[in-house]
Write a structure and sequence with these properties.
52% of the residues lie in helices and 0% in strands. With 342 residues, it is mainly α.
């Protein structure tokens, strides 16, 4: 499938619209602390938001069909980790982003235009709106969220997973299923109890694609169309935080060992999607070794942030998925990986 685990249908955008040609060289100054890097990322995201509340996909090198998903990632990032309320500027940015996502919803609850990769928009946007609802208590979001949660439920497969929309390959896959489960779990927590059963079915599907060595597959165990590392970080971040018992102890231990091995490997900088889920999974493991690896990972992420020029606070477009996600994707994934919460 074109686009791998995250995006369907990569598309290059001319350099004049992405900032590639004017990107400054990586700073060689003293290392930036993860907290400072996070603050700089928030500043860049706030000044990069469009007047309509979105973050432009095409302007920053992404595929325009995924603009709701990119805006959702921006919304998740500016909302912060829940340790304190966003400041006045970030709260205003978050409200505009939420309004944009609501305006992108149709009468059936679907967010964004209909195409094969639309479930990414749906899952990410629903999750982000739930985070915004939880943070703000804005009752105006309740109706749109009712419809968005119901739309996710309608598209759940009989096996408990989700896949591409109107795709020639109708099988459930880990990448799309994960975002629907994240949204449904948040919904169940924040006032949509009917979402709980669907979320648990999705969690069981995710647990079912792991193997005895701790690897997660794309559609089934040992299915690695573009490698196992990102899939394993994604699956581990999901199942290790499950409120229901999904894994026997030996399988859980195998996943933990696999994560620690993955985190100790150099050269993760070309996949910020992997790094986001790897950071989340290490937090869920919670051992001294895992948290030490997490600190190393976050320091390395911070060290790659651009420190000069108009792109200060963002990350360079050298990620394996950046031709589709663009600078908004790379920067939000990096910023989310720097979060301190679980």
């Amino acid at each position: 499938l074109a686009g791998g685990y995250f995006w369907l249908g990569r598309r290059d955008t001319p350099a004049s619209h992405t900032g590639r040609a004017q990107a400054p060289a990586r700073s060689v100054a003293a290392p930036v602390a993860p907290a400072a890097a996070s603050a700089q990322a928030m500043a860049w995201l706030c000044r990069s938001q469009e007047e309509d509340g979105s973050w432009s996909a095409a302007k920053w090198g992404g595929n325009r069909q995924f603009q709701p998903a990119l805006t959702a990632l921006g919304l998740m990032a500016v909302l912060g980790d829940g340790s304190n309320s966003p400041d006045r500027v970030r709260s205003a940015v978050a409200k505009r982003a939420a309004n944009y996502l609501v305006a992108s919803q149709d009468s059936e609850g679907e967010i964004g235009e209909p195409f094969s990769g639309a479930p990414y928009n749906q899952g990410m946007a629903t999750h982000a709106l739930l985070m915004a609802y939880h943070a703000s208590g804005d009752a105006a979001l309740r109706g749109p969220l009712d419809r968005a949660v119901e739309a996710i439920g309608r598209r759940q497969h009989a096996d408990g997973g989700w896949g591409y929309r109107d795709e020639v390959d109708p099988l459930s896959n880990l990448s799309i299923t994960l975002w629907q489960v994240k949204a449904l779990r948040a919904a169940a927590e924040f006032g949509w109890p009917q979402a709980k059963a669907r979320a648990e079915r999705g969690m069981r599907w995710i647990a079912g694609v792991t193997d005895e060595e701790g690897f997660f597959g794309y559609r089934q165990p040992r299915d690695f169309p573009e490698g196992s590392t990102t899939l394993t970080a994604m699956g581990a971040a999901s199942v290790l935080d499950s409120p229901v018992d999904l894994l026997p102890p030996q399988r859980r231990r195998a996943i933990q060992v696999r994560l620690e091995h993955l985190a100790a490997q150099p050269g993760q900088g070309n996949d910020y999607y992997q790094r986001y889920f790897l950071s989340a999974a290490l937090k869920r493991v919670g051992t001294d070794q895992a948290l030490g690896l997490l600190r190393d990972l976050q320091r390395d992420i911070a060290s790659n942030q651009l420190q000069e020029g108009p792109l200060n606070g963002s990350w360079a477009l050298n990620d394996r998925w950046s031709d589709t996600g663009g600078r908004i994707y790379v920067t939000t994934m990096a910023a989310l990986a720097l979060r301190t919460d679980r």
